[in-house]
Design brief:
Layout (H helix, E strand, L loop, with lengths): L5 H11 L2 H8 L6 H8 L4 E3 L14 E3 L2 E3 L3 E3 L12 H11 L4 E4 L6 H7 L5 E6 L4 H13 L4 E5 L9 H6 L9 H8 L2 H10 L8 H4 L4 H12 L6 H10 L4 E6 L2 H9 L4 E4 L13 H12 L4 E5 L5 H9 L4 E4 L1 H33 L12 E3 L2 H6 L5
Parallel strand pairs: 4-11, 5-6, 6-7, 7-8, 8-9, 9-10, 10-11
Antiparallel strand pairs: 1-12, 2-3
Helix pairs in contact: 1-16, 4-5, 4-16, 13-14, 15-16
The structure holds flavin mononucleotide.
Flavin mononucleotide binds next to helix 16.
Length: about 400
């Protein structure tokens, strides 16, 4: 079957990978209210099309930190992607480069900083860091990323502790995966995935191999979650990162005007309005609802991005109309990867590109600079309600 949209890709991914892996990707924290709201809240805006404006030539490119991206969609960091497909983060990175955009590699990747850089074209990678307790460890990761040509640093700040993902708890999801009795049937139904997994070896944290020596994998997971993670981190740590990283620096996870102001004071170049795809704190605002507050507070002092719930070309238009420079996507490309590796991610980006292009033509905007507040208006209650797609 040829997927037509995100819902199709999600469904095809479901048929390719075991439930434990699919739930790890698809799931959110607690009751998953924020997860659903991220998608639904885009429907609280409507588009205001203008007609007869010569849209025969359309340019989807945007400038991000002085560099041209062929479309306003960046791939957000996502960890442990060999659980989706044997090529993991590398497959996704290659597809991003083919579309003239960038891939953000998480420090928690299952393919190392070096291996992704070796397989992806130069200039197509950003690196995402969590602030680890051990500063030497942060410096080491940044130096590795810099040496391999990663051009920007994304610092994710919304994981002071791990959120409560109840599907993972129920499934007994752990790294390394350990087949529990309840998992066996699900694994038996996905022989191809199991064969790949057995051939390629356990999915683990490829950037922390040194920590793994002499440790059982389960201990490594514990080590990474409890020893490296740093709930004591403060804005001083961000200032310090600013002083050691000279390329563009983006903070990821901001949802309030206050934090946006602090981030600007620390000298960030970019802010990604994010709630981690509803995977951390449930009950926080949908990102599209938080975006205007951050855009207003920053007032042009940093480039603004948004991630969470972007599923359609019209969502991208709405985000840009509200002041985002570009959007980041998570699950859409991760499910594309699960569906068909690099080709699957390529397909997802192609679908989004096509939808953005059609939306531009039909709203009468030929380039991204023409997308401003005049493109959108608040939806009526009835229209917003009509937009909620049952999951
Ligand atoms: C499987 C998975 C793993 C993720 N791992 C990370 C990570 O390591 N670092 C990070 O900053 N965000 C991580 N995220 C969050 C994404 O970067 C992004 O904020 C979120 O997926 C956006 O929402 P969307 O999935 O609705 O597009 C992860 C998301 C998913 C789905």
């Amino acid at each position: 079957v040829e997927p037509r949209n995100f819902a199709d890709v999600r469904e095809l991914a479901r048929r390719r990978i075991p439930k434990v892996a699919w739930d790890f990707i698809d799931g959110g924290a607690d009751d998953e209210v924020t997860l659903r709201a991220n998608e639904a809240a885009f429907r609280s805006w409507v588009l205001r099309p203008r007609h007869l404006r010569d849209v025969s030539k359309r340019d989807l490119s945007v400038t991000v930190f002085g560099r041209r991206l062929e479309l306003p969609v960046i791939l957000s960091p996502a960890g442990l992607l060999r659980i989706a497909h044997r090529t993991g983060e590398l497959g996704a990175a290659r597809a991003a480069a083919r579309h003239g955009t960038v891939y953000t590699l998480t420090s928690n990747s299952s393919v190392s900083i070096e291996d992704v850089a070796a397989g992806a074209p130069p200039g197509s990678l950003w690196f995402q860091l969590y602030i680890w307790r051990d500063r030497g460890r942060n410096v080491e990761l940044l130096e590795r990323a810099r040496a391999q040509g990663y051009t920007a640093l994304v610092v994710t700040v919304d994981v002071a502790v791990a959120g409560k993902k109840e599907r993972d708890i129920k499934n007994g999801f752990k790294i390394p995966l350990k087949a529990t009795p309840s998992m066996v049937l699900g694994l038996a139904r996905r022989p191809r995935w199991v064969a790949d997994y057995l051939r390629e070896g356990p999915v683990s944290f490829a950037n922390f191999d040194d920590l793994a020596t002499g440790r059982r994998p389960a201990e490594l997971f514990k080590q990474i979650n409890q020893i490296l993670a740093h709930p004591g981190a403060t804005w001083r740590d961000l200032e310090w990162l600013r002083s050691v990283w000279d390329g563009p620096l983006i903070i990821k996870g901001t949802l309030t005007a206050e934090d946006a102001e602090q981030a600007v004071q620390c000298g960030v170049d970019g802010i990604s309005v994010s709630n981690h795809g509803g995977r951390q704190l449930d009950g926080v605002p949908a990102t599209i609802d938080a975006l205007p507050e951050v855009v207003d507070a920053v007032a042009g002092r940093a480039e603004i991005f948004i991630d969470g719930g972007v599923r359609r070309g019209i969502d991208v238009i709405t985000a840009l109309a509200l002041g985002a420079r570009a959007v980041l996507i998570g699950r859409p490309y991760v499910f594309g990867l699960a569906m068909d590796g690099e080709a699957g991610v390529h397909r997802v980006l192609e679908m989004l590109r096509h939808e953005i292009d059609v939306a531009m033509a039909l709203t009468g905007r030929a380039s991204m600079d023409e997308i401003d507040r005049s493109c959108i208006a608040p939806a009526s209650r009835a229209q917003a309600a009509a937009g909620v797609i049952p999951r």
